[in-house]
């Protein structure tokens, strides 16, 4: 008989409703498997844009520090203190292209499962802007559970 062993679950979040739904699934799985939760927010760097030097009056270091402080606080607030203790939560904010940042984090932290929301955009929007979730699924070193809003929901309160 085969068994499933999940020790570390990564939940990348953009703080959207889709991400909140993914966190709900991840909490249920973490509880079932006594797994550790990692909450990650990837902040795209505006300094990678050609127009950045003309618009931003702060240094890259100042931007990074402010983004991390804000994001880490928001990540911590996603779970209660009891949940953070129960799931041995690790929060991380990283600057970079979201899909690449998520995959790199999963490799570095030996993540067993990524649980993430997907916005389920239409075909035209998908062609124009792509899908972070799709890129992660293609490149992830582990299984990826994608959660769409308004779909069959198997997590009960």
What does this structure look like?
- Helices cover 45% and strands 18% of the residues.
- The protein is built from 7 helices and 5 strands.
- The two termini are 30 Å apart.
Keywords:
alpha/beta; five-stranded parallel β-sheet
| Classification by helices and strands | alpha/beta
The neighbouring-strand order within the major sheet is: 3-2-1-4-5
User: Count the strands?
Assistant: 5
The proportion of strand residues reads 15-25%
**Could you tell me the mean pLDDT?**
85
Helix content: 40-55%
Shape: globular
Q: Quaternary status of these chains?
A: single chain
For the record, give the distance between the C-alpha atoms at the N and C termini, rounded to a whole number: 30 Å
Order of helices and strands: EHEHHHEHEHHE
Q: Largest sheet at a glance?
A: 5 strands, parallel
Contiguous runs where pLDDT drops below 50 for at least 5 residues:
124-129
Number of helices: 7
Rg on CA atoms, Å: 16 Å
Blueprint of the fold:
Elements lengths: L7 E5 L4 H17 L2 E8 L8 H4 L4 H18 L3 H6 L3 E6 L2 H11 L4 E5 L5 H7 L2 H8 L4 E4 L10
Parallel strand pairs: 1-2, 1-4, 2-3, 4-5
Short description:
Helix content is about 45%, strand content about 20%.
């Amino acid at each position: 008989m085969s068994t499933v062993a999940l020790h570390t679950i990564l939940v990348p979040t953009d703080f959207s409703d889709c991400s909140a739904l993914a966190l709900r699934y991840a909490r249920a799985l973490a509880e079932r498997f006594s797994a550790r939760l990692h909450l990650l927010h990837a902040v795209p760097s505006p300094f990678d844009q050609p127009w950045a030097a003309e618009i931003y009056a702060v240094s890259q270091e100042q931007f990074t520090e402010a983004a991390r402080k804000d994001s880490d606080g928001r990540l911590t607030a996603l779970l209660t203190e009891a949940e953070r203790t129960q799931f041995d939560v690790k929060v991380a904010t990283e600057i970079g292209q979201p899909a690449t940042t998520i995959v790199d984090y999963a490799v570095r932290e030996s993540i067993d499962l990524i649980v993430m929301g997907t916005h389920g955009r239409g075909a035209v929007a998908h062609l124009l802007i792509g899908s972070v979730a799709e890129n992660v699924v293609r490149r992830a070193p582990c299984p990826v559970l994608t959660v769409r809003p308004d779909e069959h929901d198997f997590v009960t309160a």
